[in-house]
Design a protein that fits this description.
By secondary structure, the chain is α/β, with parallel strands linked by helices. Helix content is about 45%, strand content about 15%. The protein contains 13 helices and 15 strands. The radius of gyration is 35 Å and the shape is elongated. It is a multi-pass membrane protein. This is Lipid phosphatase CDC1. It is found in: Membrane.
């Protein structure tokens, strides 16, 4: 009897030990499974999606909302002052787009130049598209320097750049777009004009000196660069013949002169005005393939023979508004000159712009409007600022910094991330049914266990650090954000 009881106790102890071993093995298996799960690469799609949405909002704001706001400020109705019911002819003037090429920044690495060119081209393309859609000028005139290294390219490379230029600035149907005025970056300047580059430019864009009628005004496009050549008559003959013939013909409409290089002025007396960014006087200088103003004698000859009401120039990249005086049939006449700001973001100015010109010249300038006699000049003009390109870039860099810090914090400080970010995300985005999970646990449960239960949410990340997991999530985030940029830079 004693033996039987003893054997039972031994058996019970043995079975208890075997049960404990089995339980320990099952627990160790569960732990190993959980460890293997934690070691498995996880793509945190919830966080990537949230950051992607933030990037989408940021990019949309600066690539669409800000641009529309700039166009709204330039709307013709906000500054035109014509009689009620007047139908004006509206003109957009674009100076020095100077699309970036290999001559722009020769000392920089090719990778840097590539991304810079993508950004600059996009800025041009987007602004041109929005101007044509929202402002919809009847006529568009480019004031030279279409290319940067255009005068130096061989024919094959030049055709490639010509195609690219027309892709950036496509001509709008039923609207006039004139690109035939050359700049010194297109053909050279004065005695250093490259004749082959001049012939090539005129073959593709049209005669470099011409006149045309628009809005009951005569636009005079004068190639003052070739006109300044004193050595090669093959270069200067064509613009000089055009100028002389124009002076002999009769022109009943008011005249508007367009030239790439500004006419001569005394910068100490003829100051540029408050819209100029630079506080220094207008530069009077010359060098290899450039000269900041046309010679004084030639400038007076141009003014006398064209007799413009107003003239527009480019080349300087900054705004300048002065008044010229010139003799005409024994009398002194005056003409305003506005040097138009560059429309490019890489021309050394903070705010690129275009110049808007509104023309209204009916057969009788004196019209009756609401019982009052109305008389005005036949033109009105306004500086139209393009969106600030550098503010958008700064905000994108801040967004990049935030994204990098967030994803580094998530992968290399996972416990802190779970204790702060994951719990907050769970509280904000969880359904009301799950709120009970965040209620205080019974006092018998330890604080560590409570914290552990809170961090085990769908927003929690793996507790272990993993470089591979970091690289995987960083790659997915980069691809998703780049897809937004590609969409706005190529499709929109």
């Amino acid at each position: 009897m004693v033996y039987r009881n003893r054997s039972k106790s031994v058996l019970s102890k043995h079975s208890k030990k075997s049960d404990d071993k089995a339980h320990y093995k099952s627990r160790s298996k569960k732990k190993s499974k959980s460890k293997s799960k934690s070691k498995k690469l996880r793509i945190y799609w919830r966080y990537i999606s949230i950051i992607w949405i933030l990037w989408l909002g940021l990019i949309y704001y600066y690539e669409s909302v800000v641009v529309k706001r700039a166009m709204k400020k330039c709307q013709w109705s906000t500054w035109e002052n014509w009689p009620k019911g007047a139908e004006s002819h509206r003109v957009g003037l674009f100076a020095d787009p100077q699309i970036m090429d290999e001559y722009s920044y020769p000392g920089r690495p090719q990778v840097v130049n590539y991304f810079t060119r993508v950004i600059v081209d996009h800025y041009h393309r987007r602004n041109w598209k929005y101007v044509q859609y929202y402002l919809d000028p009847d006529s568009n005139f480019f004031l030279g320097d279409l290319f940067d290294g255009g005068r130096n390219w061989d024919d094959k490379q030049w055709i490639k750049e010509y195609t690219r230029f027309n892709e950036i600035f496509p001509k709008k149907p039923l609207r006039r777009t004139v690109m035939s005025l050359p700049g010194n970056h297109d053909i050279g300047f004065g005695d250093e004009v490259i004749e082959s580059s001049l012939e090539r430019f005129s073959s593709y864009f049209g005669e470099t000196s011409s006149s045309l009628e628009a809005g009951n005004h005569t636009f005079v496009l004068l190639d003052t660069i070739s006109l300044s050549d004193k050595k090669n008559p093959n270069v200067s003959r064509v613009p000089m013949e055009f100028l002389n013939n124009f002076a002999m013909d009769s022109h009943p409409h008011p005249r508007i002169l367009l030239t790439h290089v500004p006419l001569w002025r005394n910068p100490e007396q003829q100051t540029c005005g408050k819209l100029r960014e630079s506080k220094k006087p207008f530069p009077i200088q010359k060098g290899l393939q450039y000269q900041t103003v046309i010679d004084e004698e030639l400038s007076q000859e141009i003014l006398t023979k064209t007799q413009p009401e107003i003239l527009f120039s480019g080349d300087d990249h900054d705004h300048c508004h002065i008044l010229h005086s010139y003799p005409s049939q024994g009398e002194a006449k005056t003409a305003q000159e506005i040097t138009v700001k560059s429309c490019a973001m890489n021309m050394g100015i903070n705010r690129p712009a275009i110049q808007l010109l509104s023309l209204y010249n009916p057969s009788d300038l004196k019209t009756v409007n609401a019982g009052e006699e109305y008389e005005s000049k036949t033109y009105q003009t306004e500086l139209c600022y393009m969106p600030d390109p550098f503010k958008a870039i700064k905000m994108y860099l801040w967004g990049l910094l935030f994204s990098a810090i967030f994803i580094l914090y998530m992968h290399f400080f996972p416990k802190s991330f779970n204790n702060h970010v994951a719990i907050t995300m769970n509280r904000v985005f969880s359904r009301p049914d799950n709120v009970a999970s965040d209620l205080p646990l019974p006092t018998s449960v330890s604080k560590s266990k409570s914290r552990k239960s809170l961090t085990h949410t769908k927003y929690a990340v793996n507790d272990t650090r993993s470089v591979k997991q970091f690289l995987a999530n960083a790659t997915m985030l980069t691809i998703s954000v780049m897809s937004i940029f590609i969409y706005f830079y190529t499709v929109v």
